[in-house]
Amino acid sequence: MKRGKLKPLALAAALAVVVAVSVFESRSNPQEDWIKIGVNLGAPRIRLAVAELAPKSVEQQLVSMTGIFNRTVRSDLDNAGIFELVSRTMMPERIPSEPAEVVFANWTEPPAAAQMLVFGKAESINQNLVISGRLFDVRSPANPSVLGKRYVATMNEISTREAAHRFANEIIQTLGGGVPGIALTKIAFVSKRTGSEEIWVMDYDGYNQRPITSYKSLSITPRWSPDNTRLAFTSYVSGNPQITMFSMVTNRRISFPSYKGLNTTPAWSPDGTKVAFCSSMSGDPEIYVSDANGLNLQRLSFSRGVDISPVWNPKTGNEIAFVSDRSGSPQIYAMSSDGTNLRRLVSVGGDASSPSWSPNGLFIAYHWRVSETGTYDIYVIEIATGRIIQLTHDARRNEYPVWSPDGRHIAFESTRSGSRQIWRMLADGREPKQLTENGQNWGPNWSH
Amino acid sequence: MNGATYQIHFDERESIRKTLVLSLGMHAFLLVATVGYNVVGARMGGVWGTALGGGGRAVQVNAVAALPGVPLPTPMQPARSSLATQNPGLYKTEEVKPEPKPEAKEIPKFKDSVQREKAERINKRIQPEEIPPPDNAVPFGQGGPPAMAHSQFAMAGGQGGLNLGEFGDRYGWYVNAVRTRVSSNWLLSMISPNLQSAPRVYVIFDIARTGNIENVKITESSGVPEVDRSALRAVLASNPFGPLPADYPGSKVSVEIYFDLRR
B210: distance to nearest CA of chain A, Å? Predict the structure, then answer.
């Protein structure tokens, strides 16, 4: 009797709950949108049309500054490595400067066949250059606007180029899935163009090269601090090689302790609080680490032979890779930042040196002299698997690779053009570009 | 003993009548609930099954001629890839070859035909026969835009008078950017090289307004732990994405992404 009554009641209750839940569920989260996508073969590059901005008047200065802006934006987007730029000859004849002037079919159909379109206008207002730049998704004519930016620059090349770099960075970050662009980064390097080795700095695209030091001595191995306010480098100005701190804000040296013997190859920890470097204060070149102001000196490596060129894992900050010849020839080793857990990373013969840790912490780029051929080339090792990828080949000597902060580029020095110069390439080895031409230039380091 | 049997008999007769009444009542309640929901639901703005929606949670699959969002790569090997569409690529359309006559084939045994897709491990010593690309193969990524992105569907979530349609429809560039980023972070080298293919892994996560990733989950495993792990890593390594489009009103976007291992 009891069973007979309870069962249908329970059933009814359960049904009521089910109905109620389904009604509620269909009413909750009204604004939740879904993206459904798949990954299998890697994504093709985005086909981007960069229409030239038109100057709104014929002032000589405005026309020339607009030309600089156009060239800079185009070269930044070309360098980014994620776009396939539509060549100028494939673009429609009518270039828009206002949103209403965009004829979508002209851009989406071959030969342009673009997915995205960059356009805008340049005006001269109160002796200032005013740029209105836009990014349109031409494949969705109903809601094409992705970016609309306005930049005010003074009428000179440096200011105009900075505005162009900022606009390019916005586009790269928006379309590249959130990875910040590198158009505003700088590269420090060693140049002998004035007769002595001095530290120089240039924009990432090779423009605006300027000296930082003029010590008429030997200054090498520049390293940017993570906040880009300081450069640490090795200087022979006091007689023996010392670690030198240089403030990029005040353009002056900052005190850092000097030790006897060789002190070289400084390396910043990713939080900027510590500096690892090589010193022979105890007789044998070993890795030391201290605070950025020189306090709390600590020795990390203990082995016969040279231990040099430390570099921190920029992702975790608790590992240091360095070069050691304890096995007979220079090889790359890694250890924890307290000196424990020592292991050899590259276990093939030849000479491997100048490691540079990739920003995502997964790769180390280095240069390697293969004993059999005697060639110097850039390689990348994937740390987890030990897989080695060769990036340069058949191009004379290629040394001192260094990663860009977005992990998409590598700067290095090469003698392929006849003299030692700074080059830049994509991190898979494609599209090498020469950045310096005057005198001899080497030892690049990319700002953050 | 005898009494007990009688009682059971009696109980059974009683319960049939009761259940019948209750069942009728239940059906009536269901009918009222359905009709009532439709009336109330219509007044609240959502009607099930209307073509233009106007809200609700209807699954809406838009087949569009012009590509609004992402051209997804077809899940095939690059050499074997072919156009998803007959128009409007950069190449001339080839005439369709007549299909060869089907030959009589033995009907596969039931056991074989229901076998689950398995990860394919190859024996290194036996080199697989290379399949030459067909003459009319279009190199991957150069075939012009396919007429329809092959998985462009989403829940239409319009309410409060503003019907945005699909996220992917409106912000195709954002979807593309997400895919590019995750794809560039998917490291095939972390998967054993003798693993040639694996069933798809499905991962879901939310992108908050700031671009940060939340609630990462595997909803369908490939059955191969290393593939699952590499897919999770690819998503986590992409954190954060760019902020959601400024004019998008929602607070987050949910993403379902699958990883298709085909070497």
Answer: 10
